[in-house]
Amino acid sequence: MAMLYLTHAECLEHREPDGHPEQAARLLAVERALAGMALDRREAPLAARDDVLRCHPEGYIARVERAMPAAGWAMLDGDTYLAPGSLRAALRAVGGVCAAVDAVLADEARRAFVACRPPGHHAETARAMGFCLFGSVAIGAKRALDHHGLSRVAVLDFDVHHGNGTQDLLWDEPRAMFVSSHQMPLYPGSGLASEVGAHGQILNLPLRSGSGGGAMRAAWQPALDRVAAFRPDLILISAGFDAHADDPLAGLEWETQDFAWLTGAICKLADTCCGGRVVSVLEGGYDLPALAASVAAHVDKLREE
Ligand SMILES: [Zn+2]
Questions:
Q1: Do 8 and 44 meet the contact criterion of CB atoms below 8 Å apart?
Q2: Nearest 5°: CA angle at 109, between 107 and 112?
Q3: Ligand 1: distance of its center to the CA of 202 in Å?
Q4: How far apart are CA 127 and CA 238, in angstroms?
């Protein structure tokens, strides 16, 4: 049973202003990195509105639709833009995660990697931010709970930035455990260890700039023990690769093998608690060679573990 890989060419049409780090070339680098691998390649479908509504109110969706430019760009905040193709790209990102959840829960595959853009983990309930429009991974978690009837899901976020959006969307959801490691201080500024969610189901792991792979492993090992105790029926990953030493936006100084180690540890945990079911979703990662190498190591571990 081959691992699933979901993407869509329309995700390249979320065209970025000159010099913006969240660029279409990121997806092309991912595509090249995975080109030689045996994967079950599928197109990410457009999300149904009902799925977006699992996490965002109608008024917010309408506000994004109204802001869509006919040409050029519209800015939703200082670094979150809309191009003419952005809405369809964002709906592919949400749809890709939902389709991956559906396929893994239908036993069509044990593992899936969704490589779409824009990313999603900074998008709050009614606020686009940090390059993100809709909270794709949180919507996937809600779909697993509410559409498929799972009892518990875990969302594990190792992007270098705090997943403030996912935290916001899942804050009051006792059936979803959210764990985020991130550099602190850094954008967006949230993610203190004292932020634990309405039901104590959120675990934040702030890491110091320059702390490296050793500190990451020391933080994640006990966190994964807590995830195991939560007994999720499905694990979703917010897979950002901007903690890499070569990334221009941050300074956690992880190496490619650190992403492989963490992915392997998550897969081993999934094997013990949820039949190995993991849906991984691309978030950040802005140095193209580091992104390509790290994604290849991540997907390789997802395939073999
Ligand atoms: Zn990031």
A1: yes
A2: 130
A3: 19
A4: 19
Task: Determine the Cα–Cα distance for residues 151 and 149; give it in Å rounded to an integer.
Answer: 6
Query: In this structure, which amino acid lies at residue 63?
Result: R
Q: 161 C-alpha vs ligand 1 centroid, how far in Å?
A: 4
Ligand 1 center from residue 99 Cα (angstroms): 23
Answer yes or no: are the C-beta atoms of 233 and 175 closer than 8 Å.
Answer: no
- Residues forming the active site: 122
Q: What amino acid is encoded at 169 in this protein?
A: L
**Each residue's pLDDT tens digit in the chain (305 positions)?**
899 999 999 999 999 999 999 999 999 999 999 999 999 999 999 999 999 999 999 999 999 999 999 999 999 999 999 999 999 999 999 999 999 999 999 999 999 999 999 999 999 999 999 999 999 999 999 999 999 999 999 999 999 999 999 999 999 999 999 999 999 999 999 999 999 999 999 999 999 999 999 999 999 999 999 999 999 999 999 999 999 999 999 999 999 999 999 999 999 999 999 999 999 999 999 999 999 999 999 999 999 86
Give the containing element (helix H, strand E) for 251: none
Distance CA(52)–CA(136), nearest Å, equals 8
Per DSSP (E only), the strands in the chain are 4-7, 40-43, 74-77, 80-82, 111-114, 153-157, 176-183, 202-207, 235-239, 278-282
Report the distance separating Cα 83 and Cα 78, nearest Å.
Answer: 15
Between CA 266 and CA 276 the distance in angstroms is 9
